[in-house]
Design brief:
10 helices; 7-stranded mixed beta sheet; binds flavin-adenine dinucleotide; 383 residues
């Protein structure tokens, strides 16, 4: 039986994350967004709170919390600022959880403590200029020379790519083997042949770093076996999509909170606008979507904590919560009228930041194909 009752410890961690988001993240979100500033000081504070790598076992420097507790933390950070939530999602879910699950003992000892402490950042290099949704069709190549793996190719849209000390790079070792030739490599970025370029002028996530990576004969440390690459990418996304979904619950809640407050203070026709039925309809729509998104995230988290399969339920949560975040932020602007169109209030940033969540870590269309495949037994993803 699913039990959504929070433990005392979970309530305490949520309150700590909430206070931290309100005290440290919210006050800096607008300026960082305006200045396209990737706030590494704030990232360090997030790490100092134990919010980077929270699901990583304590022996490797994490907090060893369960997935439901992780969602509570990510929701609060997502309510504060999606650029910072992206850091948590990438480092914790895409990078650390992959190393926890697939890394050798030596790889875990080397990388996890420095990622959890914020001493180093890590990025996840799957997407390429010509390869997005069709993630198995990679052009980046890896070959073994004198017992060492050398990698060449390019990666596109990589979050934290300009600031990371470690890149998880997915590459093809033998194109004839198709997805069975894919492998994942731990690539230290401070080596010759590894270069990055910042991607500017994004619609949102302006306080987040996004990069294009170029790899010219760089050395990589194989994680898992050759042929595990696709499985590693999919297991990373199972955790990453959950994290994105939890962050989107934060956007929904933030949009709702801002709209309720504004609807009570703004008067028109000599009444608070919140007293008009059509404004209450918008608020009610936001409440329902926020609660539904949170319920789906918590269900996926509960399954993960029980060690049960959760891929489909994670896709359902990701699809619903990301689309709900876009809709709630949009409704939030509507409630604020003209004031919602400038950054005096957080709702316009919420909308710009939410927009990428239906694209990255698998677009909404790809989530629908995953859900459709699970329920029909027919795979529409393969040509
Ligand atoms: C700000 C930002 C940060 C990102 N961070 C990372 C990162 O850290 N690491 C990383 O590896 N990637 C990252 N990405 C890349 C992201 O995951 C991809 O953009 C996403 O997977 C979609 O790939 P694409 O852009 O190539 O679109 P495409 O795959 O070309 O898709 C274009 C459109 O076609 C649709 N489509 C494609 N195939 C199908 C199909 N079979 N059936 C129906 N519709 C289909 C898509 O749904 C979409 O609507 C990031 C992207 C952005 C914008």
């Amino acid at each position: 039986m699913i039990d959504f009752e929070l433990t005392d410890e979970q309530r305490l961690i949520r309150q700590t994350a909430r206070d931290f988001a309100d005290g440290e993240i919210v006050p800096r979100a607008r300026e960082n967004d305006r200045n396209e500033h990737f706030d590494t000081e704030l990232v360090q504070q997030i790490a100092d709170m134990g919010f980077l790598g929270a699901i990583v076992p304590e022996e490797y420097g994490g907090r060893g919390v369960d997935y439901r507790t992780y969602a509570l933390i990510v929701e609060e950070i997502g309510r504060g600022c999606s650029a910072m939530r992206t850091v948590v999602s990438v480092v914790t879910s895409l990078v650390c959880s992959s190393i926890v699950r697939w890394g050798s003992e030596e790889q875990k000892q080397e990388w996890l403590p420095q990622l959890c402490s914020g001493e180093s950042l890590g990025c996840f290099g799957l997407t390429e200029p010509d390869t997005g949704s069709d993630a198995a069709n990679l052009k980046t190549r890896a070959k073994e020379v004198d017992g060492k793996w050398r990698i060449s190719g390019g990666k596109m849209w990589i979050s934290l790519g300009n600031y990371s000390k470690l890149a998880l790079v997915f590459a093809q070792t033998d194109p004839e083997k198709k997805h069975k030739g894919l492998a994942c490599f731990l690539v230290p970025t401070d080596q010759p042949g590894f270069t990055t370029q910042a991607i500017h002028h994004k619609l949102g996530l302006k306080g987040s770093d996004t990069a294009e990576l170029a790899l010219d004969d760089v050395e990589g440390d194989l994680m898992g076996e050759v042929g595990d690459g696709f499985k590693i990418a999919m297991s990373a996304l199972d955790s990453g999509r959950y994290s994105v979904a939890a962050g989107c619950v934060g956007i929904c809640q933030g949009s709702l909170d801002a709209s309720i407050a504004y609807s009570k203070e703004r008067t028109q026709f000599e009444r608070p606008i919140g007293s008009f039925q059509l404004v209450q309809e918008m608020i009610a729509d936001m409440v329902v979507q926020t609660e539904a998104a949170r319920g789906l995230v918590w269900r996926a988290g509960w399954l993960k904590d029980q060690g049960k399969p959760s891929t489909t339920e994670t896709s359902i949560a990701k699809l619903y919560a990301t689309e709900a975040a876009v809709k709630c932020a949009d409704l939030g602007i509507q409630v604020h009228g003209g004031s919602g169109y400038v950054d005096d209030y957080p709702v316009e940033r919420y909308l710009r930041d939410a927009r990428v969540t239906t694209l990255y870590e698998g677009t909404s269309q790809i989530q629908k194909l995953i859900i459709g495949r699970a329920y029909t037994g027919l795979n529409a993803l393969v040509p």
